[in-house]
Specification:
55% strand, 188 residues, mainly beta, eight-stranded antiparallel barrel, 1 helix
């Protein structure tokens, strides 16, 4: 199924001084990531809802502090108990975000590169899907369980634009993947 990228609206965040940006439970800093996202569905999505494994890879640009942007990769894995072409709702999905911080800038107060500060593990436990004007919006919410931003709330939104009308793949073999534009916010 041919899907197009859409732009996401930006979100303003409050920032803490650099010494507080280590994310080990300190809730005074936020992270905003945006970029393309590619999901794979097994088995492929059809019109009939069914349990589906979902794997997603994202290539983010993340603002991790005032004037500080780093690249990051996100990997999501989970199972949706009732996914179909019109809804991709996941109630339990885990995402690991690996930040590509320069050496010595992993976000820790001391400036040393530490493995836990250069990644965030997020457990999403709520999901909604809304379809309006041909755009499918999937929103996941949860909390950071490990690493940068531990204990902070996280929200991931993906916009998918489907082809006009009902995609023929949904009527036959099914849709095995989709492309979209994702925004991940780890809230301060």
């Amino acid at each position: 199924m041919a899907l197009a990228f859409l732009a996401l609206l930006g979100t303003s965040l409050a920032w803490a001084p650099a010494g507080q940006a280590h994310g080990t439970g300190d809730r005074s800093t936020g992270i905003l990531c945006q970029g393309p996202s590619r999901s794979v569905y097994d088995p492929p999505l059809t019109l009939q809802p069914k349990e589906t494994r979902i794997h997603t890879d994202a290539d983010y640009q993340c603002t991790v502090g005032p004037g500080r942007t780093v690249r990051a990769t996100g990997t999501l894995d989970g199972v949706s108990p009732d996914a179909a072409c019109a809804t991709v709702a996941s109630t339990r999905v885990m995402e690991t975000v690996e930040y590509q911080d320069p050496k010595g800038h992993a976000g820790s107060a001391s400036g040393s590169a530490s493995g836990s500060a250069s990644r965030s593990v997020i457990q999403y436990d709520r999901g909604t899907t809304v379809r309006a004007a041909g755009v499918l919006t999937v929103r996941l919410t949860g909390h950071v369980t490990e690493g940068r931003g531990k204990g902070q709330e996280a929200e991931r939104t993906v916009l998918l634009a489907a082809a006009r009308g009902l995609p023929t793949e949904c009527l036959s073999s099914g849709t095995d993947g989709s492309d979209g534009r994702a925004q991940l916010e780890i809230k301060p």
